[in-house]
Amino acid sequence: GDNNDSSRKRHLTASRVLPYAPAPLFRTISAVESYSSFLPFLTASTVTARDERTGLPSEAFLTVGYGPLSETFTSKVDCDERAWVVEARSGGIAPHGTRTGHPPPSGFSLDKAIPGANEGIFEYMSTRWELVPLSTSPVSTKVQLEIRFELRSQLHAAMMGAVEGQMASLMIEAFERRIRDTY
């Protein structure tokens, strides 16, 4: 038995202060469908549902990968424009460690759509972007990225070990480049 769970759990954070107002930054982080075109470790991103009121993504297929490791998740996406937060949660975890009560539709198997998907590298994966408007002049916003995941095996943990220390900062740097290219 492997009772050493903690060695497979990760909590990564990075933050940056960018010289932009929060609104354009929020537009970029809530455009989940374009994640794969600029974020490292996200090799595919497809929005599968949108909030009827806001038109913002509420569910997506996200493929997370590094080297030979790759996994596609159905992710629940929360885009909260009032709080300037975009959160994507995948796998068996919801906020604060409660399990989501939404099993996939009966008869639905990711294995049929994506071979091997159910074998799984990650128990769960969540990314949370939070924007904190700063009362500075000129206008600037603090971008905070929080990534939590648990790996299924020690082998995967060892393989991810090489990159995970830089994962959050690489993602936030890529976001910064995307913003510079867009605005």
TrEMBL record:
Gene source species: Penicilliopsis zonata CBS 506.65
UniProt xrefs under Gene3D superfamilies = 3.30.530.20
As given in the record, the signal peptide range reads none
**Cellular component aspect of the GO annotation:** mitochondrion
Q: What does this protein do?
A: Required for the function of coenzyme Q in the respiratory chain. May serve as a chaperone or may be involved in the transport of Q6 from its site of synthesis to the catalytic sites of the respiratory complexes.
Q: Where is the Coenzyme Q-binding protein COQ10 START domain?
A: 19-176
**Cross-referenced SUPFAM superfamilies:** Bet v1-like (SSF55961)
Stated name of the protein: Coenzyme Q-binding protein COQ10 START domain-containing protein
